[in-house]
Amino acid sequence: MHTGNQKHWETVYKTKQPNEVSWTQEIPATSLDFIHAFDLPRTASIVDIGGGDSKFVDYLLEEGFENITVLDISAAALEKTKKRLGDKAAKVTWVVSDVTDFKPATKFDVWHDRATFHFLTTPHQIKKYIDTASKSVTGFLTIGTFSDMGPDKCSGLEIKKYSEKTLHSALKKGFDKLRCITEDHITPFQTSQHFLFCSFKRRAD
């Protein structure tokens, strides 16, 4: 399963430019709004799950955040981002891994995920993801996923859609919900994808 997924994503990132994939955002405004709402020190530890060649890390660096980790299943995606960042790439910790195999050696103040969680379609995958987040997050978690009005597939793969209620239910064992919003993401092809974004706070056990 993981090998197949990795091969899929390596092919995507090696053969397509940002304007040829649906998830591209020039400015990750919603993700940044959630980060700003947490009122974090610039030393906060932030992990971007499934960061790919997203520009989220560019904006975090520009705002002075000093402790950023970017994880993606595709080494090709991360290489694109490193190349774009140039010398700034040395300030970031890069991790090539399927998120369900991720074993963080550190704790995170913020776990950010835009458009990875909905690719986990089995109870086993979802449990591993949530277990890892619960063990490694000390502060906040923010997830952007396809809403129940979103598409049924992305990049040719089956996905799992969420309502505010079902996303909260999936994470309720370890996290308290802070707020949720929905928005239409306009793709580079001028189509619309309906997203749900929610933020959570790690609950003390």
Q: Which terms summarize this structure?
A:
single chain; 205 residues; alpha/beta; Rossmann fold; seven-stranded mixed beta sheet; two-stranded antiparallel sheet; 9 strands; 31% helix
Short description:
This protein is α/β, with parallel strands linked by helices. It contains six helices and nine strands; from the N terminus they run ααβαβαββαβββαββ. 31% of the residues lie in helices and 29% in strands.
Question: Describe it for me?
Answer:
The protein has 205 residues and is of the alpha/beta class. The chain has one domain: 3-Layer(aba) Sandwich (Rossmann fold), CATH 3.40.50. Helix content is 31%, strand content 29%. The strands form 2 sheets. Strands 3-2-1-4-5-9-8 form a 7-stranded mixed beta sheet, sandwiched between helices. The chain has a two-stranded antiparallel ribbon with strand order 6-7. α4 links the parallel β2 and β3 (92-96). α1 runs parallel beside α4. It is globular.
